[in-house]
Design a protein that fits this description.
single chain; about 600 residues; alpha+beta; 10-stranded mixed beta sheet; 5-stranded mixed beta sheet; 15 helices; 17 strands; cytoplasm; RNA-binding; mRNA cap binding; eIF3d
Length: about 600
């Protein structure tokens, strides 16, 4: 770098302050004036300033002098390579130095001497290299090109989202067709369709019922073990099998207590809590289901078929993720329904106090034979008033009892089951303890109908608390062995509010179906949820329909449907064979 010559000269001493001496001191004698004038540097600027003035650089020794041929003559005001910048000051002929603030031209020519480029941003679009730009000039950002790139990126993102949604809709549509086009009951050509009711009409219904009347309480209940409330994924408990305890799934017309109440003319409509819950939560259902309706005189009976879908529990019914279509797959809708029913029955017995005291009620279990071991269950027969001439009696189930605030409280026990985290997207073992609300929200999305039916059954039975267990497979490919990860408790009315379950709308659906069926003549009918559309249909069927309708494939877990009084002898052999097959499979899995 070429440096300008700099000569040291004599500077007069000013004993009164800063800067050159005053002109009056210099003119005191002719001899001193000539000496002072000779010693003053020519063209050296000086201007007084205050502390509030902003000062720039007077000299810049870092200017780029690599191209001296292109610069103007040295010393000019526009010389970019000059070390000193005198453009901001005016020099008087008598060596009086004044500021250039009064000259507009010189104000416009003033600039700060700073050759360092501004810092580059860490984020944002990168600068484009343009060979036509001057090297000494910073590259300029092209806003038009940036905006064009943003528009193109937004179009591409919208195209990908549209393609992704189309693929998801196609998968969802195919899965629903594969699962829903299979009706829960084979519609025969001789059946006559009487009514077709879309679910959209159900949402507008509303009916308020009075407090029900308890007619009878049968069975016996064991106390709930509060130790399970402290269960976490870190101290999980193995789900046990209760092979010796019998569970009963008896339909309405086969219930001896309901037959007795019908003879006593206690009501005109009879049903069970499971059947009423299926009707009340019908708009939330996706899979097909059916209910048999019998009109006998002025009485109306709502029944279920043997081996009906109502005996099983749906899994991932309201989910958008597809399930395997093969029926023999362990993750198919049918296999998961059987597994869920098996888990619920064993869970409801494991969380009880072993060999503890037992609450007994007015009558014993009406379906149990003398001497056999039965599960902890109580049947509550309750009567609701639908209008002045019509009452409804329903059999409601309770699974346990507990002491809360020195008062006896009834409980319902149910369990959600996790079969493979990749289907739900939430791993219970990782999220259940820290993000319990997220796990429950996911289950409400994937199993909304099942949770709504459990809540409706708890409300019908007037349970004080709902206990919901979270049960998972030991391994995603092992559907025989399970562990209990957690148990949560909810009040039915509060939980119904959380899941947006309106009791007035529930009873409005039941009242409309009852009024419609009471207008039918005597005979047998079947109400079927359409397999592919959100609607139900009512068919008139022959009187002997479903009487010889046996399940083609027996349930692999004998606890799902136990024999009733009418077919106890024939079912004992099939139950024993199913138990033996189950034990062999479990031994193979453990090995």
């Amino acid at each position: 770098m070429v440096a300008e010559a700099f000569e040291f000269v004599a500077v007069p001493f000013n004993s009164d302050g800063w800067g050159p001496p005053d002109a009056s001191d210099v003119s005191s004698s002719a001899s001193s004036t000539s000496v002072a004038a000779a010693n003053l540097l020519p063209n050296v600027p000086f201007a007084s300033f205050s502390r509030s003035d902003k000062l720039g650089r007077v000299a810049d020794w870092t200017r780029n002098l690599s191209n001296p041929s292109a610069r103007p003559p040295t010393g000019s005001k526009s010389d970019p390579s000059a070390v000193f910048d005198f453009s901001a000051f005016a020099i008087d002929e008598g060596f009086g130095l004044t500021s250039s603030g009064g000259n507009p031209d010189e104000d416009a020519a003033f600039r700060l001497v700073d050759g360092k480029p501004p810092p580059r941003p860490k984020f944002g679009p990168k600068w484009r290299f343009n060979p036509h730009h001057n090297r000494n000039q910073l590259p300029q950002r092209r806003d038009e090109e940036v905006e064009a790139k943003k528009r193109d990126a937004e179009k591409e993102r919208a195209r990908r989202d549209r393609l992704y949604n189309n693929n998801r809709n196609n998968i969802h549509h195919q899965r629903r067709e594969a699962a829903a086009f299979k009706s829960s009951v084979d519609i025969q050509p001789e059946w006559n369709m009487l009514e077709q009711i879309p679910f959209s009409t159900f949402s507008k219904l509303s009916f308020t019922v009075q407090e029900p009347e308890d007619l009878l309480l049968c069975g016996g209940l064991e106390y709930y073990n509060r130790v399970f409330d402290r269960t976490t994924p870190k101290n999980e408990r193995r789900l046990e099998r209760f092979k010796n305890r019998n569970f009963f799934k008896v339909t309405t017309s086969d219930d001896p207590v309901i037959r007795r109440l019908a003879k006593e003319d206690k009501a005109t409509v009879f049903a069970t809590d499971a059947i009423l819950a299926a009707l009340m939560c019908a708009p939330r259902s996706v899979y097909s289901w059916d209910i048999v309706i019998q009109r006998v005189g002025n009485k109306l009976f709502f029944d279920k078929r043997d081996g009906s879908q109502l005996d099983l529990l749906s899994v991932h019914e309201t989910s958008q993720e597809p399930l395997p279509e093969a029926k023999d797959d362990i993750n198919s809708a049918y296999s998961l329904g059987v597994e869920a029913a098996y888990i619920n029955q064993n869970f409801s017995q494991q969380v009880l106090v072993r060999d503890g005291k037992k609450e007994t009620f007015d009558e014993a279990n009406p379906f149990a034979n003398e001497g056999e071991e039965i599960a902890s269950v109580a049947y509550r027969y309750r009567r609701w008033k639908l209008d002045e001439n019509m009452h409804l009696v329903a059999r409601c189930e309770l699974q346990s009892v507990a002491e809360l605030n020195n008062q006896r409280s009834f409980l319902t026990l149910n369990a959600l089951n996790e079969f493979d985290p990749k289907y739900s997207g939430v791993d219970w073992r990782q999220k259940l303890e820290t993000q319990r609300g997220a796990v429950l929200a996911t289950e409400l999305k994937n199993n909304g109908n099942k949770l709504a039916k459990w809540t409706a059954q708890a409300l019908l039975a007037n349970a004080d608390m709902m206990k919901i267990g979270f049960v998972s497979r030991v391994h995603p490919r092992d559907h025989f062995n399970h562990v209990i990860l957690s148990v949560l408790g909810y009040k039915p009315k509060d939980f119904a509010g959380q899941i947006n379950l309106n009791t007035s709308n529930m009873w409005g659906i039941v009242k409309s179906i009852v009024d419609l069926c009471m207008k039918l003549s005597e005979g047998k009918y079947v109400l079927v949820k359409d397999p592919s559309k959100p609607q139900v249909r009512i068919y008139e069927v022959p009187p002997d329909a479903f009487e010889n309708d046996y399940v083609e494939e027996p349930l692999p877990e004998d606890e799902q449907v136990q024999p009733t009084e009418g077919n106890a002898e024939g079912a004992e052999a099939s139950v024993a064979a199913a138990k033996e097959t189950e034990d062999k499979k479990a031994d193979e899995i453990q090995a």
